[in-house]
Give the backbone structure.
Amino acid sequence: MNAEHLPPAPSLDMMTSWLGFPDTAPRLREAYERLARARGLEARPPRSLDRALDRLASWGRPGLALADAFAARFRKRGPLRRRLILVLALLEADPDAGEVLDTPLSRGPAGAVFRGVIEAVGHVLLLLASIPPMAVLAGWESATGGRG
Amino acid sequence: MTVGTVVIVGSGASGVALALSLLERGRKVLMLDVGREVVRADHPDLAFPAWRRSLADPAETLLGRSGEALVLPDHDGEYYGFPPAKKIIFEGLEGFDWVADGFAPLLSFARGGLAEAWTGGSYAFTPEELEGFPFPADEMGEAYEAVASEIGISGAEDDLSEVFPHPAHPLPPVEADAHTTRLLARYDLARETLRRKESCVLGRARLAVLTRDRGERKACTRLGRCLWGCPRGALYTPSWGLARCQERDGFTYRPGIRVLRIEATDGGDVRRLHLRPVDGGADEVLEVETVVLAAGTLATADIVLRSLAGVGVDRLPGLMDNRQVLVPFVSPGRLGKGFEPESYQYHQLAMVIEPGGGARQIHALITTLKTAMIHPVVQSLPIGLKGALRLFRDLHGALGLVNVNFADERRDESFVALEDLGGTATLRVHYEPPPLERTRLPAGLRRVRRVLRRLGAFAPRSMAHVRPMGASVHYAGTLPYSANGGDLTLDAAGRLRPFRNLYVADGSALPSLPSKNLTYTLMANAWRVGRLLGD
C-alpha cells in the first residue's frame, strides 16, 4: 500500500516538509511504509478525536502545526503523534537530515534560553488556536462517523 | 571426553574468565553453551557520522527491520536503548520458560552472554564489601589485577582510587568529551565542599576499554559507535575472551547446547550432564569429572533446581539486584553548544556517595548524551513535536544522565523457584524490595541532585525514573559463598555443597551486593576459582 493513500492524513511529504526537511520524503518512503505497517499506523483511527486531528493536520502546514500542538497536550499517544515520531526517527537515521539534527540552532546558553522561551510561547499560542477548529471537526466527526 | 577436562556451562564474562584461568594452568576445558552468535560490527575506522552514511539502509540498521528500536509514545516496559544489532543477545530460548513478579529479568543465550551488551564499568569491590566472602580479600585483589591485565581497564589515578583500589595501574582514560570536561572542572572547584557536605567523591570512570592496542583489539579512537557495537574491540566483551580461549590448546567450545540438569550419586558425585541440542535432535548424556556452572544467576538456578527437583528442593532464596534510578540532568552552561558524536558513548565519570544513617554506599555513573537515538527524548518534551525538535537541538550538548545504583542484600523473600505451570517446569523469579527502600531511595536521590547542583547541573525532580528490579541485570545471591557451611552454599573454592565436583562461578556466588556493576568482580572471582581448580 502506498503511504500517500493510507486513510489518515497528512502525507509523508507534508510531514517531512513541515519538520524542515522537504527533500527527504522520497528516500524515507520505503522505510516509512514498512514501519507504519509494522507498528499499526496505517489503520483508520477509531476515535473521532483522532480523525479530527488527521483532518486538521491535512490542511497544509498551518493545520499540521495546530494539530501537533493539540496532540502534544491532549493526544500524546494518538496516531498522529505516533506517525510524526516515526518520521522524526527516520529523519535522525537519515545521514543528511541526521547531521542537521545533530547541530544546535543557537550559539550559546543565552540564545538557547531565548529560543526556549519563544518555543514555549509559540506552543501555547498554537494550542489555544487549535481548540476552536478541533471542537468543530471533532463534533462533525462524532456526528457523521467521518463519513461526510 | 579427555580425562581431567573441566566442563564449563556458559560463555559469559564469568565462564570465559574461568576458562582462561584454567587454560593458563594447562587444564583442558570443554565449554557448553547455547551460544547464539552476535555479529561483529564492521568498518573499524569509520566514525559515527561516516558510518551512518555508509549504511545501505540506515533506517533498518538504526531502527530495525520492524522498528525494534523505534520508541513510540505507547511504549510500555523499560526502555533499554538496545540497537537492533544487539537484539539477539536478549532473545529467549524455546523451552526455557519463566514467569516473574516484582522483577523484570533479562536473560541471554548469546555467545558472550549479557556482558555483550554491557557498558564496560569495571568497579572492584572494596575489602569491606568482600567481608562476607569466606576467603581473604587479597585473593580477590590478585584476581582483579589478573583480569585487568587480560581485558585492559582504563581510568585515572584520581579521587575514585580511594574507593576503587583495583586495578592499581589502569590504562590512561578515554579522552573526555567537552561536557564531561566541564563537569570535572566544576568538581575540582567544589571538591572539598562535596567531600565534607555530601561525602561524595568523583572521578574518571573505570572502563574495560583499551586506550592502547592489545593484539587483535585496538585502542579506542572515539568512533562514537559504542551503542551499536565497538568495531575495534576496544570495549571488552566476553566474545573477545572466548576468541582468546579458542586460540589455546586444550579448549573445546560446543555451542548449540542447553544443559538441562546434572546427575549425581547419593554421595554428591556429579557423574553426568543431560544436554539438549537447541536446534532439535535427541537429548544427550555427557559423562563428566568436574563441572563449573557459569551460565548466569538465573540460568544456573534453572539447572540446579531441575537437578534437585527429585529431592524436594524447589526454591533458591536470596536473589539480589541493584535498584537503579535514572536521573536526567541539564548543564545550563552547555546549552546551544552542540555535542561531540566522535567520543566514547557510555559513562565517562563515576561518583561514590556515602549517605550515612546506616545506608550503604551509593554508586552513580554519569553519562553525557551523544549519539543515542534522540526521538525517545524529543517526544518527552512538553510541547509540540516540531518545537520540541528545535528545542532539543540546543539542549543536546547540555543533557546528561546519572545512573544511580543502590546496594542490595540477601533476603529469603526474594527467590528463584521451579514450578509446574500447566505441565511445564517454569522458572519463577520473585523479588520483594528491602523494607527501607522507600526512605533510602528519596534520601539518596536528594543527595545526588545536590551534588549535581554543585557541578553546575540541574536535575528536574519529576524526570527521575526508578527502574524496575531486574533492569540493572546485576543478578546475584542464590547459591552464595558461606563460611558457615550448609547445603546449596559455596565453600571458599566455589564448590557447591554437598557436591564433590560441582562448582559455581557466576553471580549466584555473591553473598552480598554492593551498589556497583558486578561484572569485573564476577570475572575476578571466576579467575580465582579457575586458579584453585587448576593448581
Summary: The mean pLDDT of chain B is 95. The CA atoms of residues 30 and 229 of chain B lie 28 Å apart.
